[in-house]
Amino acid sequence: MTGAVGVAALAAPGAALAAYPDKPIRLIVPAAAGGTTDIASRLVGKRMAELLSQPVVVENRAGGAGIIGVQALKQSAPDGYTLMMGNIGPNAINYSLYRQLPYRAEDFAPVSMVVSVPNVLVVNANVPARTVAQLVALAKAQPGKLSFASSGTGQSVHLSGELFRKRTGIDIIHVPYKGAAPAVADLVAGQVTMMVDNLPSSLPHIRSGKLRALAVTSASRVPELPDVPTMKEAGLDDFQVTAWFGLVAPAGTPPAVIDRLQRTVAIILAEPEVKSRLADLGGVPGGDTPTHFGNFIKSERERWARVVKDTGIPLQ
Predict the structure, then answer these.
(1) Distances, alpha carbon 192 to alpha carbons 186, 195, 246, in Å
(2) What is the C-alpha to C-alpha distance for residues 36 and 48, in angstroms, rounded to an integer?
(3) What three-state secondary structure class fits 79?
């Protein structure tokens, strides 16, 4: 009898994993609807639901520089039924920007990169500047009068704005929002002057003429905006920023579950229609292994710690 019980106990975990998933999966978005984090989550979540034969419920938990969403993930069971679309803000920049965080890097298990995108410096269409040099001259003529929006303190959009301020020596005001969508909406309405936004959330407004793109933060020009120079071409060296978005799970999630999720994401990102959709947004699809993604996140934490120190941003 004892032997039979022992065999059953050993078999049970494997049986449970084999059944995964057998209920809906919650995908936390630590940002407002409409931004790149949300766009990536809904695109991948829809196909995950189809491939895994279970609903994937996207839940926006905006605010607190992504900290609110991260806390929701940390408090969840490590069973593969709660995931988060992590990004450069809460999973890299925050560690050096905040004196105290209610989480550690070790609290999360990387699954896979989903997409990486460049940022783009955009201004309201009514702003007279048509080049980076003209925008800098405009700001220097009106110190403390112009403003830059961000999707929240600590996001790459915020740090890109701070980098722009540092590299050009201008005095501009930071206006943080609870996501890219409300920030872009106010930029289009003329409530703020500029933004160094993730390309996907600003691209439709650039194409419609409501925003004017002055430079991209990638190493080379992007196909979606072939006439827009890179920051280096515009005269600003050491200004290369790539925003990234990828799935993470609570630490302790079974490796077999992480592996199944990663393989599913890799399949999705290799599909022609998904690749085409991401390319239209200026994005490069991911799909890498948990180990590779984890090493990448570590390198990003170290890189942005140097940027935060270099720009002299006050700790939050």
Answers:
(1) 6, 8, 29
(2) 18
(3) coil
Q: Write down the pTM of the prediction.
A: 0.84
- Distance between CA atoms of 125 and 83, rounded to whole angstroms? 38
Confidence category of residue 17, pLDDT binned at 50, 70, 90: low
Q: Which residues contact 75 (CB under 8 A, 6 or more apart)?
A: none
Residue found under tokens 């827009």: 228
Which residues lie closer than 8 Å to 59 by C-beta, 6 or more apart?
26, 27, 28, 29, 72
What the chain holds in terms of domains, given with CATH numbers, is 22-116+243-311 (3.40.190.150), 118-216 (3.40.190.10)
**Cα 258 from chain centroid (whole Å):** 20
Q: Which of 232, 198, 201 is nearest to 215 (CA)?
A: 232
pLDDT single digits (tens) 144-189: 999 999 988 888 899 899 999 999 999 999 999 988 889 999 999 9
Compute the radius of gyration of the chain from its Cα atoms.
Answer: 21
How far is the C-alpha of 315 from the C-alpha of 164, rounded, in Å?
18
